[in-house]
Specification:
The protein contains ten helices and 18 strands. With 375 residues, it is α+β, with helices and mostly antiparallel strands. It has three domains: 221 residues, no CATH class; 95 residues, no CATH class; 51 residues, no CATH class. Strands 1, 2, 3, 4, 5, 8, 9 and 12 form an eight-stranded antiparallel sheet that branches. Strand 4 and strand 5 form a beta hairpin.
């Protein structure tokens, strides 16, 4: 799904726009036991409470594409014969009213998911009248189709802290009892995906809060689909490959040049208003290394290691391997950050046999909140 399509569905999660009439789910304790189930009408809730439930569900569609939000693809065989796809389809067709199907989904999640706390599994079904848009950009008066989907959110539940309060009628202090607090979703998904503004039963949209943990066992059980390497792990792995392949030629200039060219690629993608998430290939990175003056044999070594780590012909989201906001420089004693676009202000030198990191200081220099003078 594109960012635009995700945003279109996200706008549904308001009490005045959503067709979600009720939510159902269960409370799972630390021992992987269901200790409570619920099926509650949003219409019977206070408006603020219903709005809060929708806001929590909406967070399952938050974050960045290719990082927190990952497209799941089903093969034709899975759609025709797959047990996992059949369960998702049955849940959708029955509008989450089939208790047996719902419990199968609970079991799949509970058997594979380990969190540090109890958690809630939330399920909601929605029907969205998809209006066509005219050449003038205006919405037509009648919808051309209906997008029926359901969303699943897994939210940690944690005990709140007891708080000291001043009790006005009794003119005294007293401790207010702690209550449980429902956290933002740890993971979740939407089925089917919303591609080209219509239902795509060959896809689902998966959400993970943590960039370093995609809960792959749960994903495999739910979808029988392999996820790409988690975003944070991609960045770490890319750095290791670059360092290992380029070896002694892995200089400040090389890393700085690769970073600046990735940032330029992302900026161009943004200016062109391309809906699909940006992608970068090993060939793209190879050209960046070549531009930096890296020898061909080391570029070939990089591409070999890239294939081993990520898979042949795999493309990555550039945002997963480069921080577009800053360049980070670390030593055992220091941690420096320079805004992206100003990487050329940093250089390395060896002076009298001692290694130095130099940062050009064109403007004010502030140390511990104090402007200093450089003589």
């Amino acid at each position: 799904m594109t960012d635009k399509e995700i945003a279109e569905i996200r706008r549904r999660f308001r009490t005045d726009k959503s067709n979600i009439s009720h939510v159902r789910g269960c409370y799972v304790n630390e021992n992987k036991e269901i200790i409570s189930e619920f099926d509650q009408s949003l219409g019977m809730m206070a408006e603020d409470d219903a709005g809060e439930v929708l806001r929590i569900l909406k967070k399952t569609l938050s974050g960045a594409s290719g990082r927190n939000l990952i497209d799941i693809e089903f093969s034709t065989q899975q759609v025709l014969e797959g047990e996992e796809h059949k369960l998702l389809t049955d849940l959708r067709h029955t509008r989450l009213t089939d208790g047996e199907c719902v419990h199968k989904l609970y079991d799949k999640i509970i058997s594979t998911l380990t969190l540090d706390s109890s958690y809630l599994i939330l399920l909601a079904y929605d029907s969205y009248d998809v209006f066509a848009t005219g050449a003038d950009g205006e919405k037509e008066t009648e919808s051309s189709r209906v997008f029926n989907y359901f969303i699943c959110s897994v939210c940690p539940v944690k005990a709140g802290k007891a708080t000291l309060s001043y009790y006005l009628p009794g003119k005294c202090f007293r401790t207010v009892a702690a209550d449980t607090v429902l956290g933002a979703p740890e993971l979740g998904f939407m089925f089917p995906s919303f591609d080209d503004r219509t239902a795509n039963i060959y896809g689902a949209l998966y959400y993970t809060k943590k960039l370093n943990d995609s809960h792959e066992e749960t994903v495999d059980t739910l979808f029988k689909s392999k996820l790409p390497m988690p975003a944070a792990v991609q960045k770490e792995t890319f750095g290791e490959i670059l360092e290992s392949a380029v070896s002694e030629d892995c200089s400040m200039r090389v890393v700085r040049t690769v970073h600046s060219q990735i940032c330029a690629m992302l900026e161009e993608h943004k200016e062109q208003k391309v809906e699909q998430a940006p992608e970068i290939s090993k060939q793209d990175i190879g050209e960046m290394l070549r531009y930096s003056g890296v020898a061909e044999e080391k570029i070939e070594k990089f591409e070999e290691k890239y294939d081993e780590a990520f898979g042949k012909d795999t493309k990555l989201n550039p945002k997963n391997i480069a921080d577009v906001k800053s360049i980070s420089v670390k030593t055992p004693e220091t941690n420096l950050k320079v805004a992206a676009g100003y990487g050329n202000m940093i250089e390395t030198r060896i002076i009298d046999g001692v290694k130095y990191i130099l940062i050009r200081a064109d403007g004010d220099v502030v140390v511990n909140g104090v402007n200093i003078h450089i003589d």
